[in-house]
Model the fold of this input.
Amino acid sequence: MRTVNSLIGSPIERLEDLRFLRGRGQYVDDLARKDMLHAAILRSSVAHGRIRSIAVAAARALPGVHSVITAKDIGNRVPRVPMRLQPLPDFEPFGQPVIAETKVRYVGEAIAVVLAETAAIAEDALGLIEVEIEPLPAVADRRASAQDASLLFEDKGTNLAIKFRAVRGDAAAAFADAPYVRRESFRTQRHMALPLEPRGLLAEWDAARGRLTLSGGAKVLFFNRRTLAKQMGLPESAIEIVENDVGGGFGARGEFYPEDFLIPFAARHTGRPVKWTEDRREHLMCVNHAREAECDVEIACKRDGTILALRGHAYVDVGAYMRTNGAVGARNVAQFMSGPYRIPHIDVDVALQLTNKTPVGTYRGPGRFETDFFRERLLDMVAQDLGLDRVEFRRRNLVSQREMPYQIATITPFESKDEFDSGDYQTTLDRCLDEIKWTEKSKLAGKLIDGRYHGLALGCFIEGGAAGPKESARIVLEPDGLYSVYVGSSAIGQGLETAFAQIAADALEVTIDRIRGVFHGSTCYVDDGYGAYHSRSVVMGGSAMLDAAKNLREAIRAQAAQRLGCQPSEVEIVEGSKAVGPGGKSIALNGLSSEGISAEGAFLNKKHTYTYGAHAAHVAVDAKLGHVELVDYVVVEDCGRIINPLTVHGQAIGSVVQGLGGAMMEHLVYDQEGQLLTGSLADYLIPTASDFPNIRAIVMGDHPSPINPLGAKGAGEGGIIAAGGVMANAVANALSAFGAQPRELPLTPTRVWELAQAPRK
Amino acid sequence: MKLPPFDYACPTTLPEAVQLLATSNGDAKAIAGGQSLVPMLAFRLAQPSLLVDLRKLPDLRGIRISAKGVTLGAMVRWRDIEDDERLDTAHPLLKAAIAHVAHYQVRNRGTVGGSLAHADPAAEMPGIAMTCDAEIAVVGKSGAHVIQAADFFQGALTTALTPDEIIVEIRLPAWPAGRRWGFEEFARRRGDFAMAAAAVFYDQDANGKAHNAHVGVIGVADRPLRLPAVEDVLNGRAIDATIIAKAEAAASAAVDPQDDIHASAAYRRALVGTLVERALKRAAA
Ligand SMILES: Cc1cc2nc3c(=O)[nH]c(=O)nc-3n(C[C@H](O)[C@H](O)[C@H](O)COP(=O)(O)OP(=O)(O)OC[C@H]3O[C@@H](n4cnc5c(N)ncnc54)[C@H](O)[C@@H]3O)c2cc1C
Done:
């Protein structure tokens, strides 16, 4: 049996689990420091208004309160939360001040920070702060936003942050002589990532050394350090951001938020450690929202079902400010509306409309969940119109393996070109149909059995991954002969330590127990890192690790050659434990160097990987209750070279569950005054253990990516992307007797019941 | 979401508890299972100066079953009802309804008295109290008295209790063998408060005709409702498909729900009809 080079692809159990299952995980809220102050944040209860006055004396006088910080205390100019991705100059005027200065623009915006001896006292003091806000008309949705009657930023004269356009070929010409055109409007609802662990920060200021340590970092620590250094006027080297265990990220956790400045600032301001733990209510109204999109699109086809062109308009409600990654979802809505299908001519624009609601950011499958709902719904409608089989229609239009790499629509204004790297999209579709027993189950479609209508649907998706430009890794051969692995990627619950240990062990040709540990996230391990987003950690960090392993082996050979008195090229490393020179002379690696040998590696990349796959669902609908029972759900994806089938499988299942939440129940509801009506988990409904017991995931690894040395592609978003479209199509199929055509998510009982109110055909 | 400051007392006798509530200017609150009150405190929707813990009051516990009916002490937990096999025959409707309350952890703590006093319009226990013509026994500074369920619930989270009053027990009239009944509820997720639910029962005479019909619904108004219009459809009739269809229509017509974030008014109106229909089908089966 091979003992080395056998780990990649093995279903080894997560190394993290032992720690978590024994209750030894350490989250930021578990940390405490001597003399620590607790922060509580006064948040605007008004969606849109001008701040007239803030009176903090009574709060400051409450026993146990140390101080109260408002914009006045910050300095001349309150820093803005920057754009991390697509930092176009167009967005600058819409940046969020880290604390409200003159206006408030959404319910939840920070107005003051109270620092007190306990979190409860800090919260008591919030009630003693008097804020006078002159209310302005709230802009509660994208239509009101487009009217520009009430402006979030008066000097800009518009609530339109920007318009992106996705273009390929010549859509106008293609539509001009198309034999069949269908036009439709669809809408997805505002919802959010909702990691179970809310945010938290602990800031410690060392005045003597002028150093700041910030615990509670996640996802993109190096970017956040750069940002914070600039805002606080410190060199980057004076700041360390520490990643603790993280209870889920899903795109939202770890982005730079106002608190990422306010809490470190408070620590320097007071000279004491400051901790802030977000509560669930704050989390619901302050962490990036997502997914509120609408479209008005047309598709052109030949009568045989060949898709010719797609055009139209999309609208994304981006909330009150443009911050960090707030433009990604909207861009993806336009750029990926064509999904995995060959659509030669595309012209889709998307308007990013500001409203008086919480700013948006990415959430697992950003923009893709929304646009896949639009597209897969549209495809089912077209198939029906043209009398085509739903499966054959899709099959005919999937991008084929011969066409790889396949160029997709380009986004303006920033000329974001992109192409699919590799794969055979038919194979995942075939496997999915097989698994759900499509042919057999098709007989149930639309049938009423025991009071419930059965429905069947499928959809295809692609998932982008591997965002560049770079990732770094470092491996150290310790004096005791074990290896320590350091990466710039971040762990947000995706099993990173396990995957990296597997990759490193194989690259070093050692067994996994020789890996002392995988150290990630915190800014002290490598010089630069880019973090965990866009399904990039394993692809980018893993590829960097291969490079580091190669460099380390070279360094080991060079050192051993000196000791063995030969050329480095003559040295062979055997089982990662000894170096053997000419004539069999050998030296054990654990004695090779007293301070250890370290080597760095990097991977630079501008291209993206494209995981792809298909979903299928079988539902049973109680039309009178409007209740949809999920009888069976299958997701099949090919994510290139699989590092660990167990963790990828877990990711796929979890991802589907989140997708079903978005399809069926999750909704951040606002009223016309811009008040969030779903401020607790009693009203913001997420799937619980008993809601969707029947989900299956199959992960294939038949088509490694050609654009990175690992051959890996992103994994973990595929399960969410197609869920909205597939569930809506399944309900449409079940209720076909009523001519049901869902055009809006979520599929609440009310909505499903309404769909079944038409007279039965 | 940290609790506001308050004092805490844990009296061992009922008079002592009443005294504590009575001398706090209406600013004290009893605490039973804490499953509704503590979230209210965390959201700072309630800021009592004193919490009077009822857990050491001996008179408030226990389920008593006699020829007169079922008496539930105010501190009886959902879990106690679930575990009591006598109730399978002594009050099957109660048992079926309580099976829908919340989740395992909440059921281990939440109490009958707390639920009645909290008076959530979608809660099961108040619904059963209304449907079954229950009597609610309370003690206050002016002594003990009994409030009829129909007079007790006065609006969302509003009851006939005065600040010094403690619920001691609730009495459900006896449940004859052979009584026909059904309970149907729909919630968006298992354990959630009901979107709506319907409880029905009736007795049958020698000719198979229904009499003494009781129909109650929750989740469609600011308090649990009895639906006399539906009861009229049932009384004196054999409960067949035609009557059930009439009852369904009568139930939808009898309620006037409002739109909220979870459902439209039209949907809830139809839902009540459907649940009454299904509960009656069960009863008649
Ligand atoms: C997640 C969740 C889901 C839930 N789902 C449901 C559900 O589906 N259906 C449902 O019915 N309930 C549900 N509940 C509520 C639960 O049943 C509560 O336990 C119950 O409503 C209140 O009982 P308690 O003993 O916890 O009362 P507490 O929270 O202790 O008190 C509630 C109120 O009653 C008062 N009070 C308590 N006891 C007395 C007494 N003897 N005399 C006078 N006043 C008193 C208190 O002062 C307070 O105002 C849910 C709760 C949670 C947290």
User: Anything to note?
Assistant: Chain A touches chain B at residues 118-120, 123-124, 127, 279-281, 624-627, 665, 667, 669, 677-678, 680, 682-683, 685, 687-688, 690-691, 748-750, 753-754 (CB under 8 Å). The first helix of chain A runs from residue 15 to 21.
